[in-house]
Amino acid sequence: MGKTIILTGTFCHINKGDAAMQLTMASLMEQRYADCEVVISAPFPDEDSQFYAPRKVIRCHRRRLIYSFVQCISGWLWKKTGSEAWLLDEEMRHYAKADLIVDLSGDMLTEDYGPHVALSHFYPILLANAMGKRVFLCAQSIGPFNWTRKLASYILNHAGAVTVRDQVTLDYLQSVGVTPRRLGLTGDVAFLMDPEDASAGRSRLLQLIGEDNAGPLLGVSLSFLIEKHYRKKCPVAHQEPFVDLMARSLDAWVERYQGVVVFFAHVTGPGAQKDDREACKCVAQKMKHSAFVLEDDLSPSEIKGTIRHCDLFFGARMHANIAALSSFVPTIAIAYSHKTPGIMNQLGCGEFVLRIEALSESLIENAFSRMHQEREEVRSRLHQRIPEIRELSSQNLERVDALLGMD
Predict the structure, then answer these.
(1) What is the pLDDT averaged over residues 380-404?
(2) How many CB atoms are located within 10 Å of the residue 362 CB?
(3) What is the CATH number of the domain that holds 284?
(4) Is the pTM of this model over 0.85?
(5) Which of 73, 108, 163, 268 has the greatest number of CB atoms lying within 10 Å of its CB?
């Protein structure tokens, strides 16, 4: 009889980083285990069902904190009594028959976005614990915690396994008392995602920018989220609006290298303030030189298949950066948390991380200049390191094997 595995922790497929993790993990497990049923538990199943079809998508109630607490109590009572009367909803009924719960919260097991957000991501894990189900926290950047630190420690120490995608997280979790034998340093599963056919991505780019643009191509990923962090953390933000800073810096790159700028959206909602296309259009409209915004709502593999044709990438969305890096595109990353430097350091590219609190026109210009000079060396480094990271990413499946009793 096949295994039933539930994937939880992500938001919605309109976040292409979430979708990349979900699709990659689901595909890998379906290929690995005969007759495996992968069920996706997500807050917005109506939006996700068609995207993830034919896989089953069920509603995850983690954003309803009081109801989620009741779920945990009911789940514990189900475990004690065996009565299906305690299974309150479809989510709990699927948990009851699941062989493993895989959490793909990415960078959401943290208080960086507020204790309530951390709590909402704890609840699916707590529900699994209450129902006696094995849990795998897969390839994440975790912490820091303050108000929820004791709860986080309990959850992490009761998980079947916890893998992290950066050394900073590993060191932090060990410092707060997480049992070392539960921990492992692997790689983000999105490094294993296959891009679409190369010709399709190239055709998409040429249709956007035209055949006559022969200069180097700079791919750019920006968001209003990174603008928010810039306003909050950068001391000179009140003097230098983020949109103006980006427009001037990208204009300077165009002038210096006679290149072409293409903006990629890695989150497309909900609403204009969370739609990267709107943020990118704001910057493009401020630029003196023409720039192009790829406005199609693409799948993660389609985005990666298009980004792979860039000569250089400048990104604020981490999974957009992973799409570029895993395609051997030299990348300069803007960082607002430890997840970005952690992953860039894994690839030997830590010197090309621009921290949001120090962001300035001169810092960006110097990074572009250095990358231009070292681009072939960086590309060669990526060709060497990416296979190593893919091997680390594959080790997440070995943890699944162990938890399913198949090692």
Answers:
(1) 97
(2) 8
(3) 3.40.50.2000
(4) yes
(5) 163
